[in-house]
Design brief:
With 461 residues, the protein is mainly α. Helix content is 72%, strand content 3%. It has one domain: Amino acid/polyamine transporter I (Up-down Bundle).
Length: 461
């Protein structure tokens, strides 16, 4: 009997040993940097267009509503980082899927895992598309400056996507999210830089025009069906711009304790979402006020702004630099989950589990893991290939936003909260959260359908 007990406890002891050997050095400000890097991405560039589809009242209101929903879901989810275990006491959940598994069971963990991996993968595709558009915009900006605004400055995205993919293959060899804190800090600085530039250019254009363009109803269309489709795509783009719950627990797992990780994460979420919402409102509003019905799908690459061309170039360079880091923040959790699963299936396979120490002349020594090298290279190549097939900015991010918002930002956090707090059915809290979840479900479904229709239409046109 004693032998059976020792065998049963061995995986737990190994996990505790591995967990204790993992040094967590993150604090409030590194968490804020990770969150800003995850939240402010390619979605921020479409907010002026989204505001234009919804109009002056519904547009800003939608941004504030999605921000509030994201903050609530982040609070619910951060409580799930440490889950009580009846046998062994509180334990850490190293990922979103682990938290769902322990709280809701293996079946729903598999469902959650599907949405998480698809969403992380989709975000990597969106970042590849956006980075290529920004690199192309730099080339076009210089061309317009030399040849005039009416010149035929057309360039392919393909070479720029390949360049971005090559950079991500190299950066993807970093072991985990804890090893790219510096990249998140740098990317957060870049995101603030291009947000300020976009905001400044929009404000300058409004001042130059002498009045704010736009209307209460938003962009006018030829039919109500077309208007409904554009509104749904706008909501999908706003949904994509906010949720960072895909990587919340992974970010929380980088935090040192004390203070408790939950307290630090809630404070970091509040700071980061408040700051990004403020910028989102300003960028969306000034972009719409500057261009009205002619608001471009991407504020900094749609060439509503031509001059000063060097400032447009700088903004797009900052976008690319930010997306290089953002790609890793979203991809590293997927790398960790997949490689952990593969290593668990083949624990004694030297090719998959062994690190090789290499020393190349003039370069510091480094460790090479063949599983990491092969899997992550194939992953980056696949996201690059799909981005080449669907290089449609607003439609792609709308589909991804509509796909992941309700299940990952609403459903699973709410269900885990019910489980952990033992919320009884038909109590006030239960009813309110059910209504909240149902409302978000219909909004997400509406956004997803419209964005898929827009993507198909863009591909066929």
């Amino acid at each position: 009997m004693g032998k059976t007990s020792e065998t049963h406890d061995l995986p737990l002891l190994q996990a505790q040993t591995a967990d204790s050997s993992f040094k967590r050095t993150g604090n409030l400000w590194t968490a804020v940097a990770h969150i800003i890097t995850a939240v402010i991405g390619s979605g921020a560039l479409s907010l002026a267009w989204s505001t234009a589809q919804l109009g002056w009242i519904a547009g800003p209101l939608a941004v504030l509503s999605f921000a509030a929903i994201t903050l609530v879901s982040s609070f619910l989810l951060s409580n799930c980082y440490r889950t009580p275990d009846p046998e062994h006491g509180p334990g850490r959940n190293r990922s979103y899927i682990e938290a769902v598994d322990l709280s809701l069971g293996e079946k729903r963990a598999w469902i959650c895992g599907f949405f998480v991996q698809i969403s992380l993968y989709g975000t990597a595709i969106a970042y590849t598309v956006t980075s290529a558009i920004s690199m192309r915009a730099i080339k076009k900006s210089n061309c317009y400056h030399k040849e005039g605004h009416e010149a035929a400055c057309e360039y392919s995205d393909t070479s720029y996507m390949l360049m971005f993919g090559f950079a991500e293959i190299i950066l993807s060899q970093t072991r985990n999210l804890n090893n790219v804190e510096w990249l998140s800090v740098f990317a957060a600085i870049m995101s603030f830089t291009y947000s300020f530039i976009g905001l400044g250019l929009g404000l300058a254009t409004v001042i130059e025009n002498g009045y704010a363009k736009g209307s209460i109803s938003g962009v006018s269309t030829s039919s109500s069906i077309q208007k409904l489709s554009l509104v749904s795509q706008g909501l999908g783009d706003i949904a994509f711009a906010f949720p960072f719950v895909l990587v919340l627990i992974e970010v929380q797992d980088t935090l040192k304790s004390p203070p408790p990780e939950t307290h630090t994460m809630k404070k970091a979420s509040t700071i980061a979402i408040s700051v990004t919402t403020f910028f989102y409102l300003l960028c969306g509003s000034f972009g719409y006020a500057a261009f009205g019905d002619d608001t471009p799908g991407n504020l900094l690459t749609g060439f509503g702004f031509y001059e000063p061309y060097w400032l447009v170039d700088l903004a797009n360079a900052c976008i690319v630099a930010h997306l290089v880091g953002g790609y890793q923040v979203y991809s590293q959790p997927l790398f960790a989950t997949t490689e952990k699963w593969i290593s668990g299936k083949f624990p004694n396979h030297g090719f998959l589990c062994k690190d090789f120490h290499l020393k190349v002349p003039l370069i510091p020594g480094f460790r090479l893991n063949l599983l990491r090298l092969c899997f992550r290279t194939i992953y980056v190549l696949s996201t690059t290939a799909i981005a080449m097939v669907f290089p449609y900015f607003n439609q792609v991010i709308g589909v991804i936003g509509g796909l992941n918002f309700w299940p990952l930002s609403i459903y699973f956090p709410v269900e885990m909260y019910f489980k952990q707090k033992n919320i009884e059915p038909w109590t006030r809290t239960w009813v309110m959260l059910r209504i909240f979840s149902l409302f978000c479900f219909f909004i997400t479904l509406f956004a997803l359908i419209g964005s898929i229709e827009g993507l198909i239409g863009a591909k066929l046109s």
